[in-house]
Structures are given as C-alpha cells and as structure tokens.
Design brief:
The chain has a single domain, classed as Glutamine Phosphoribosylpyrophosphate, subunit 1, domain 1. The strands form 4 sheets. Strands 6-5-4-10-9-3-15-16 form an 8-stranded mixed β-sheet. Strands 11-12-13-14 form a 4-stranded antiparallel β-sheet, with helices on one face. By secondary structure, the chain is α+β, with helices and mostly antiparallel strands. It is globular, with a radius of gyration of 21 Å. Strand 9 and strand 10 form a beta hairpin. GO terms for molecular function: beta-aspartyl-peptidase activity; N4-(beta-N-acetylglucosaminyl)-L-asparaginase activity.
C-alpha cells in the first residue's frame, strides 16, 4: 500500500532534540551534525562545510580529520609531534562507515602524513581492516598519497633531545633494568645476572615508577562523528600517538570499538585519552551497544567510563556519545574534557565542557 503523503512529509521534516550535558540543556536541530573530541574548531568547520554541502558522512569525516592533521592540532595529530623513543613520529588513523560497517585503518605508519586518507584507502581498496608500519606506508604511497616524507619537525626533535638529556625519563618501560637511563633495557629478572638481589630489583622497580601521564599535550586524538543529510553516520580518528612511546606501540586510535564506533541505526561514539588502558575495554563499542538497548547518550558514556575506572582508577580518558536523534553527551575521568559540535541550529561550532 502506498505511503500517505503526510507521512512522507513528516519524515522529511527536521527534528528537534534536547541535548543534556551536565546541568545544561541545549536544543539542537538533528541533521547534519558534526561532533569531535576537544576544541578542534577548524577541523569541525571543515567537516561541516563538506557535510552541509551534501557530502557523505565518510567524506566529511575525512575532510575534518585531514584539516586537523594539516593544522597539527595540539601537536598530537598529524606529522611533527609526539616523537617515540627513537625520535620518530608515526601516524595512527581509522575510518568507519556506520552503514556498511566497513573499517579502514593504519597504525604506526611511517613516512606518510595523511593518516585519515590512508585509512580510507585501506577501506576502499582492500579486503583488510588494518595495515601497519612501513608496509602501510608503501600501500598508501602506491595508492597515490604523497611520500615518503619525514614526519618529524624541529619542535618534535627538540622535545626528543631534551628528553634524552633527562636520561629518557619518564618513559613507558616497567620492570626493566637499568631503570634510570636510556637503555638498552633488559627484564629485571634477566638470567644473565644471577647475583642480582631482591633489594636491587625492588629499587629498580621503584625508581622507574614515574610513568608518563597522558595529557592534553603529551598524547591525544581527534575522534570525530558525522551524521550527513541522509541520516548516515561515520566516524574517524587520527593521532600521532603517545609522546616517547616505545617504537612500534599502537594505541586505541586505529582500533574500531575503542577510539570510535558507529552503527547507522543507533549512533556513534568518540573516545580519547590513555589508549593503552581504554582499548582493553572497547568503550565505544560498549557505548553504542548501550544506546542500542535504549540507554541515553549521557548514561551510556558514563557507564563505559566507570567500567574502566573501576579497574584503573588513575587513568585519564573521555567519551562522547551521539545517538540518531542528534542527542550528544560526554563523560570523562581524571581530567576536564571538552568536545566540539556543529549543527544547523548553531551559528558556529560550540564547545561543551564535561567535568570528571
């Protein structure tokens, strides 16, 4: 039976929703919609220009994350930041289509600065989900991205040199000897040193306990969600990882379900923070599944953060949840978190603050 005309008209009308963040209630027109971790305002504007002009959610996410990479947002996205123990900058990125559930990602990618575009190439031109390291670089260049390129910058190399002068402290090593130097490292129970005493082992463990704290300028991610004019959802991430990470380390940025996740009929999630901890819980998958079961975004985000905090009370992290009604909310632990939103009801990007 043919649909009644008024039903079709009703479906096409823009919907209004109430968005609750903390004690603040905001009216927001539904589609299109762009949400991003942190006050990465220019990145959100770039995504908005694309989606408002009719681009798909996937293409708009790429535009937004690419803008952040070019701007080197906070030094934690794109080239030129977050050197590893060897002084090298590498890129992690992910793109996910909430309609098809396709994912493309790159991790520990060297020599190619366009992380999100490389991730989309993986999604578009392979049957794989994740490519890593120098082979990811070779693939991206073979598909037309510029490279090889030196991803370091004078700033990142200066930061690395100062860290080396400080005996490579703090770092992400644990249970190693020597604790207070730049290595080479060995396990504290290394069999080649049978005369090592229990007291010396305790001393080494204690002296190396000052691990890096994840923070706004030591390690962070742009994680972005876009709902396009058709109501379709996509998410994407890009990061250059944790500063002074052990070479080869991959955080949660390119891991679907951890840094980002989207299901077209439900909603999306964006996450940021201590990826080594957060990826063990797949918080964004948890958030979207909670919303599928009827939980509102604020409660879904809070529930996912609380699950992590129970096991790791000192971790730093934040989540933004977005449902198909256009309702969005954040939750965080260990820091004050900000995220950015642009909707048709807003004159420009608005930044929302979430308290721990």
């Amino acid at each position: 039976m043919a649909a009644k005309p008024f039903n079709i008209i009703f479906l096409l009308l823009p919907l209004l929703s109430l968005v609750v963040v903390g004690h603040e209630t905001v009216k927001s027109e539904q589609y299109p919609l762009v949400v991003s971790t942190w006050p990465f305002i220019e990145a959100v504007r770039a995504a908005w220009r694309a989606v408002d002009a009719g681009s798909s959610a996937v293409d708009s996410v790429v535009e937004g994350c690419s803008a952040c990479e070019e701007l080197r947002c906070d030094g934690t996205v794109g080239p030129g930041g977050s050197p590893d123990e060897n002084g090298e900058t590498t890129i992690d990125a992910l793109i996910m289509d909430g309609v098809t559930m396709e994912v493309g990602a790159v991790a520990a990618m060297r020599y190619v600065k366009d992380g999100i575009k490389a991730a989309r190439l993986v999604m578009q031109h392979t049957e794989h989900t994740l490519l890593v390291g120098e082979k990811a670089s070779e693939f991206a260049i073979s598909m037309g991205l510029p490279g090889p390129t030196n991803l370091s910058s004078p700033e990142s190399m200066e930061k690395w040199a100062k860290w080396k002068d400080s005996r490579c402290q703090p770092n992400f090593r644990k249970n190693v000897s020597p604790a207070n130097s730049c290595g080479p490292y060995r396990p504290t129970n290394y069999l080649g040193h049978p005369d090592e005493t229990c007291s010396s082992t305790v001393q080494m463990l204690t002296s190396n306990s000052n691990l890096l704290r994840v923070g706004l300028h030591s390690h962070d991610t742009i994680s972005m969600a876009v709902i396009d004019r058709m109501g379709h959802i996509a998410v994407g991430t890009s990061t250059n990882g944790a500063t002074f990470k052990i070479p080869g380390r991959v955080g949660d940025g390119p891991i679907a379900g951890s840094s980002a996740y989207a299901i077209d009929e439900v909603g999306a999630c964006c996450a940021t923070g201590d990826g080594d901890i957060m990826m063990r819980f797949l918080p964004c998958y948890q958030v979207v599944e909670s919303m599928r079961l009827g939980m509102e975004p604020k409660l879904a985000a809070k529930d996912a953060i609380t699950r992590i905090a129970r096991k790791f009370p000192d971790f730093l992290g934040a989540i933004v949840a977005l449902n198909k009604k256009g309702e969005h909310a954040g939750a965080c632990h260990g820091w004050t978190f900000k995220y950015s939103v642009k909707s048709p009801a807003m004159k420009d990007v608005e930044v929302f603050t979430v308290l721990p």
